[in-house]
Amino acid sequence: MNTTATKGIGVTTYIGKRRGHASTSDFRRRQIRATADAALSIAKFTASDDYAGLADEELLVRESRILDLFYPWDLPSSARSSWLRRARGLRSRSKAITNSEGATVSLQQSHFAYGNSLGFLGGYPSSLRHWISCAV
Question: Do 129 and 76 sit in the same domain of this protein?
Fold first, then answer.
């Protein structure tokens, strides 16, 4: 059973109406700072866009809202392995099945956070998708 975990941070900067964005999967303080510096450098060389920039301060939502987007799937490793074994067993169900593209159990969760220089700071967790698939 393969287990893959990914993480990432994206930084967007604005210089007036010029936007720069950079991202990293390295959460060390030094790398996060380098990512912010890269986003700032990109903004310096990006063309101005009348529609880029921070929202007007009076449009920022200040109270917390519950978005109800987080539904964790507490599927133990043993259950994931069982699902994968069952999916692999589908090949033996029929002699007409001669190949498989594999089986997958996927659990995806994230936490979005947003902050800006106008004093806004907010975020929310979400469970993007969960699925089990097998292609024979």
Answer: yes
Tell me the CB-side half-sphere exposure of residue 105, using CA atoms within 13 A: 19
Give the count of domains, the chain.
2
What tokens appear for 87 in the block? Answer: 């999916």
Dump pLDDT digits (tens) for 65-82. 788 888 888 778 888 788
Question: For the chain, which ranges sit under pLDDT 70?
Answer: 1-5
**Amino acid in the structure at residue 74:** D
Contacts by 63-68, CB closer than 8 A, 24 or more apart: 64/122, 67/124, 67/126
* Residues 54 and 118 sit within 8 Å (Cβ to Cβ): yes
**Is the same domain home to 28 and 64?**
no
pLDDT tens for each residue of 92-110: 788 888 887 878 888 888 8
Tokens of 44: 């310096």
Q: Coil, strand, or helix at residue 58?
A: helix
User: Helix count (H) and strand count (E) of the chain?
Assistant: 2, 4
